[in-house]
Request: fold
Amino acid sequence: MRQRVAVVYNEPIPSRYDRANEEKAVLGVLDAVKAVEEALRQLGHEVSLLPLVPPFNVARQKLAALDVGVVFNLFEGFCGEPETEVLVPETLTELGIKYTGCRPSVLRLALDKAAVKKVLKKSIVPTPDFQVLAINNLHDFKLDFPCIVKPRAEDASHGISADSLVRDFRSLERQVRFISDSFHSGALVEHYLGGREFNATVMGNSQCSVLPISEIVYSLPPEVPRILTFAAKWEPGSPYFEGTKVVCPAEVTVSELEHISKTATSAFRLVVGQGYARMDMRMDEVGKLNIIEVNPNPDISPGTGAARQSKAAGMSYAEFIGEIIELALE
Ligand SMILES: Nc1ncnc2c1ncn2[C@@H]1O[C@H](COP(=O)(O)OP(=O)(O)O)[C@@H](O)[C@H]1O
Ligand SMILES: [Mg+2]
Reply:
């Protein structure tokens, strides 16, 4: 059915990422907006765009003035303030306006990777052992090396480089200090799993389905850590970018496929529940699969994992976007 749809997003503005030369990750939202707008028009919907800038009370008035059947939510939070991401779905819920993707409680939870891992740890869905460490409690460290040290509350591989893999206490201390200084939060220290890396997009509400799975395939010199670093995602020409390929559908056996899909679906049911999310997963050295990260409302621009996966499922991009709208209206 033809709908009036507003595409709501954060207008990119200068932020703390500019200094770190990390603005590319931030500008990505505009690719998604353009592609989603076009797809919605192709599907016959009446589309308007609503870019939001701070302060939120002004943005809120704009949301309240909407006269639409559904909002396509591409709002990732105001630039440099990821914690504001939840304000849009929260406000739309209050206003009784339907929106695509995940609930605000899920987006809030996922802002803290450690909080998501706590939920997983209480379930049967495996996730690597972890600790949140800062310089003043480093002596509490009790995991086995090697470990990876990540920001607790960032995404898009911000703060992830070859140095994130630590094999001894000195490099652990160095990386925890780096994370604390750069991101003003404790560091998430996790046992490092060196096996195959996959991701899967799960979509649904009470019923959910998994799109074809992607594998991150590394062809890097042996001494270079197999990690999807910031360079691998965002810096064409860098050794990491050139040495990292995404293969979709992943070359896996039928039973591996079943197990990966089941693990992704279990994590979706447990943590997300409705909308769409990408599950980042990795095997350990003996092939046991773990959930590395749960990404509610992942990037769906053409060229990203989710778009590639929907294509592998035989959908056009417009059909994929249409599916997301259907789930919102369900
Ligand atoms: N415990 C881990 N073991 C092995 N590799 C990891 C682990 N955690 C993260 N990585 C690597 O770092 C990348 C980024 O980590 P992730 O937790 O997905 O954060 P982001 O939000 O930046 O995507 C992953 O895609 C993976 O390559
Ligand atoms: Mg990830």
Summary: The first helix runs from residue 16 to 19. The first strand starts at residue 4 and ends at 10. The chain has a mean pLDDT of 94.
